[in-house]
Write a structure and sequence with these properties.
The protein is an alpha+beta fold. The chain contains 3 helices and 9 strands. The longest helix is centred in the C-terminal third of the chain and has 26 residues.
């Protein structure tokens, strides 16, 4: 097994007001419906969800990422934070959304990071690591683009 560290931070603005953006981001299943390649989102109760992704792979190596997070939305702070549920799956992911009004729209700060356990021999870690990081980042970019369309497009 190889541990691959992942981290993505983005800031962008959309053409929807913060309350409308917050309502979607605080509704985890609704927000996750914008994320690519989610095989299943399992409600674990108490605002915790297990993500089961479609398997990914290259060079004869296939791997399904599974992890769980507890989500804490705060309407007062216009934020949603997530922390890992220990002992679930092969990934540990945490992060947050932070929103603020920006003219006729919303400035959004997104940050997520963690570690994924990938079943590759140590000798292949140097090959697997950039692939996993690229796939993770690409999925996040698609997710943010899909959400941006829902929010009326990115503000210019």
């Amino acid at each position: 097994m190889a541990q691959v560290l992942v981290r993505v931070a983005r800031e962008f603005s959309v053409n929807a007001m913060p309350d409308a953006v917050f309502q979607i981001l605080a509704d985890v299943p609704r927000s996750v419906s914008h994320f690519p390649k989610v095989r299943q989102l399992v409600d674990l109760g108490r605002n915790a969800y297990r993500w089961e992704m479609e398997p990914m792979g290259t060079a004869g190596i296939s791997h399904q990422v599974v992890y769980a997070c507890t989500y804490v939305p705060s309407a007062a702070q216009q934020s949603v934070a997530w922390t890992p549920v220990k002992g679930v799956g092969n990934g540990v992911i945490e992060g947050h959304w932070k929103l603020r009004e920006a003219g006729k729209g919303t400035a959004i700060h997104f940050h997520t990071e963690g570690a994924l356990e990938v079943p590759v021999p140590r000798l292949l870690k140097s090959i697997a690591e950039p692939f996993v990081q690229a796939e993770f980042t690409r999925s996040i970019e698609i997710y943010l683009d899909n959400l941006s369309r829902t929010f009326g497009g990115r503000a210019t």
